Task: inverse folding
């Protein structure tokens, strides 16, 4: 759509303010350059909880490795600890307690501007009472959720900002992981050959709407920029297949996002200014002597603030967002938290009034777009015994888009061509009980009720000058009911089994699905493990597709209202090898079989390849199939001596069959992916209190699949017409992308300043953004553009 070009022009215009912002940032940094006469230190504090009951663990030992003398402490009766006077730097932190598996937290950064607040869950050891040495479980590279057997890993807020290409965005960070492909123009990700729309987002235990600015415009499931503020995120999980029974309504992957709680000991603040916006955050205690806390973050786009310095056609693009979490411990009555995220966007473009300058369709178009996304909820956790806890969530999540497109005709009159007025908002209730029902058996059982509310009007004109025809006009409510149970069983010292089932019922058309899930992990050597996981998974489509209108005998009908869930079988084998304590290797072969996929009869069209099409109203049937198979490899060096790297590679094939009965490559069948991310940190200054860091990431991936243009038909229609009989038979060129992050962190007395430069597509590689008809040359041209996204920023924490 025209908005994409508008946003790209604005990004290019950011370079014009780079020199101005650089000068301002240097002025900020001058006061930080004075040498410190006393060592700079910070406090590390937190709480240690029992995984199965969420009860505090008193007497747990917390040790900060690498300090001389060794710094550490023990938790009090509330499971809380405080370690003062920790020199600034980066440390591994070991947490242990008698009867529990020890945990090792890697690469924890300690700075002078902000206290380190940690919440650690310990699992009961199956070897209680035995004289054995239990190796610490490293909470990095594996999922926090211990019911995950394969295809899951934890990602941290610190990685999102430190890793090149992360751009403080979970989706862009995930694109450096094995099996994940992405582009520069949007943050939609392709997991193991599946469309971005197949991925689900969860926040604090509930499913939320697509949490991106400019969401679902160029790609369903993606957007331009994340609404999620990295400042509020806790360590979270990302799954690429065969996920545990508690997760539903997803075909390819899950982002399980968690928010951290604010500092309950003191108030802290942060301010940041950069080419992509301003960012303000604060956290702290409500009342002295209480453990309750607040945390919020607000961001505003500087594309509007700097509009006088930008090109004339870059105006009109704005976005802003707000995130918060309030945390209220209720003593023996549990813990209550309130949370929320929200964002609003606006963009627009004006048509070219001089018809001699009409090269492409967008030159004739006037467009206005406004969007919003929001999610808020209340979470309550109550320990109900020494072996169990209860958790409930009441939440609301929704999004909306208002889009109008008009086009100049030959007489320079604006004619309406498209209208989208779509609002969806969900009311969600979830509850679960997590219980340790035996010495080696933990069960988690839960339910989720989602009220799907919608108000949608979609209209478009078949040809220029005709009246808008209604594609969807619907207002109402349906329900998605879900339930699951999962048991984790340990057998001896080496075996862990997860087995469960997930079920869903869609009240709009009474379709339901029962989905078995299972996984087994065998730790056959202290440094080696094998895993095998299976799952049946399903996902609903966007609601507008169910309400697409048609006519039969003059009567309005809804041919797609009875569409079933799209479904997929996942089977994953994994091999983990700990080469050294800091160097890990993981190999994961996998196979996925997709079925019940919506297709158009007697054609090559399938929802497997869907990127975006708001105005689709063809009759569909659940008869499509697909298959994805391949192998993912990860070699990861955790930070050691200031150096780290992440090497991931994937070989895969993604195919589908639609209504014409022909197996074809899917749109996303790139066949290979290779990522190399590496970084180095140098400690500088009289006391090594400052940190200079650089991170580079290179991505080499096969070309995407494209449908060839039917040139004679296109010339006749003066529009791009594709030869659908040869769908996705053309292979695009491979791409080599380079991203870079350079930062310098200066620790001062009670504050920390950071200047950073982030570059996406640093070498300016061109990407393919579709075909377009050139009215002057009377031919179809590929739209290849080089989008370089820079963000020069300055941040202060105090």
Result:
């Amino acid at each position: 759509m025209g908005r994409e070009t508008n946003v790209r022009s604005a990004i290019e215009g950011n370079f014009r303010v780079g020199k101005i912002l650089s000068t301002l940032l240097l002025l900020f940094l001058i006061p930080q350059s004075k040498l410190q006469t006393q060592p700079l230190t910070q406090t590390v504090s937190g709480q240690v909880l029992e995984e199965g009951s969420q009860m505090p663990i008193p007497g747990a030992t917390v040790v900060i490795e690498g300090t001389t003398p060794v710094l550490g402490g023990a938790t009090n009766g509330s499971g809380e600890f405080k370690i003062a006077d920790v020199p600034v730097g980066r440390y591994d932190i070991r947490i242990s307690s008698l009867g529990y598996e020890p945990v090792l937290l890697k690469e924890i950064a300690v700075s002078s501007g902000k206290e380190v607040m940690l919440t650690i869950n310990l699992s009961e050891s199956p070897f209680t009472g035995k004289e054995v040495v239990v190796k610490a479980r490293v909470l990095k590279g594996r999922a926090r959720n211990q019911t995950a057997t394969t295809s899951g890993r934890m990602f941290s807020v610190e990685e999102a900002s430190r890793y090149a290409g992360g751009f403080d965005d979970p989706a862009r960070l995930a694109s450096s992981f094995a099996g994940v492909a992405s582009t520069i123009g949007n943050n939609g990700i392709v997991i193991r050959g599946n469309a971005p729309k197949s991925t689900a987002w969860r926040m604090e235990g509930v499913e939320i709407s697509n949490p991106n600015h400019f969401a679902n415009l160029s790609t369903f499931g993606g957007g331009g920029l994340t609404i999620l503020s990295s400042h509020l995120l806790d360590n979270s999980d990302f799954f690429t297949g065969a996920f545990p029974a508690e997760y539903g309504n997803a075909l390819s992957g899950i982002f399980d996002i968690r928010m951290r709680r604010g500092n309950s000991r003191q108030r802290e603040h942060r301010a940041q200014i950069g080419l992509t916006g301003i960012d303000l955050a604060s956290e702290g205690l409500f009342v002295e002597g209480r453990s309750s806390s607040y945390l919020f973050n607000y961001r505003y786009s500087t594309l509007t603030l700097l509009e006088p310095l930008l090109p004339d056609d870059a105006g009109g693009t704005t976005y802003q967002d707000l995130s918060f979490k309030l945390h209220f411990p209720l003593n023996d009555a549990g813990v209550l938290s309130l949370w929320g995220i929200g964002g609003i966007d606006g963009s627009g473009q004006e048509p070219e009034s001089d018809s001699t300058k009409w090269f492409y369709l967008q030159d004739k178009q006037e467009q206005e777009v406004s969007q919003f996304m929001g999610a808020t909820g209340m979470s309550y956790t109550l320990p109900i015994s020494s072996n169990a806890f209860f958790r409930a969530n009441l939440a609301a999540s929704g999004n909306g888009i208002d889009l109008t497109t008009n086009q100049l005709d030959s007489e320079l009159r604006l004619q309406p061509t498209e209208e989208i007025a779509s609002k969806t908002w969900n009311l969600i209730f979830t509850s679960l009980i997590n219980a340790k029902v035996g010495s080696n058996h933990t069960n988690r059982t839960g339910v989720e009720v989602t009220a799907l509310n919608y108000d949608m009007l979609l209209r478009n004109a078949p040809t220029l000058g005709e009246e808008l025809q209604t594609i969807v006009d619907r207002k109402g409510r349906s329900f998605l009911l879900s339930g699951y149970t999962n048991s984790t069983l340990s057998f001896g010292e080496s075996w862990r089994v997860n087995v469960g089932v997930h079920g869903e019922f869609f009240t709009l058309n009474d379709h339901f699905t029962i989905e078995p899930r299972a996984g087994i992990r065998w730790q056959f050597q202290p440094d080696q493990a094998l895993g095998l996981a299976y799952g049946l998974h399903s996902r609903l489509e966007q609601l507008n597709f169910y309400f697409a209108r048609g006519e039969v005998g003059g009567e309005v009908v809804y041919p797609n209202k009875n569409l079933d869930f799209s479904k997929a079988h996942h089977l994953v084998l994994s091999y983990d090898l700990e080469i050294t304590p800091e160097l890990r290797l993981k190999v994961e072969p996998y196979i996925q079989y997709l079925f019940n996929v919506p297709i158009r009869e007697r054609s090559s069209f399938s929802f497997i390849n869907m990127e975006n099409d708001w105005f689709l109203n063809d009759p569909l049937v659940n008869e499509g199939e697909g298959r994805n198979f391949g192998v993912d490899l990860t070699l990861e060096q955790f930070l050691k001596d200031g150096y780290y790297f992440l090497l991931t590679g994937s070989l895969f094939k993604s195919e589908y069959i639609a209504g014409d009965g022909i197996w074809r490559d899917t749109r996303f069948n790139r066949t290979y992916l290779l990522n190399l991310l590496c970084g180095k940190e140098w400690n500088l200054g009289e006391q090594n209190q400052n940190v200079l860091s650089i991170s580079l990431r290179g991505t080499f991936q096969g070309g995407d699949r494209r449908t060839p243009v039917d040139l004679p038909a296109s010339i006749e229609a003066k529009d791009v017409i594709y030869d659908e009989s040869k769908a996705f038979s053309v292979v695009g060129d491979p791409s080599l992308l380079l991203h870079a992050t350079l930062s310098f962190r200066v620790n001062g007395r009670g504050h920390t300043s950071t200047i950073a430069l982030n570059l996406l597509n640093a070498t300016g590689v061109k990407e393919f953004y579709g075909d377009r008809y050139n009215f002057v040359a009377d031919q179809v041209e590929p739209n290849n553009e080089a989008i370089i996204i820079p963000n020069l920023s300055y941040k202060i924490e105090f």
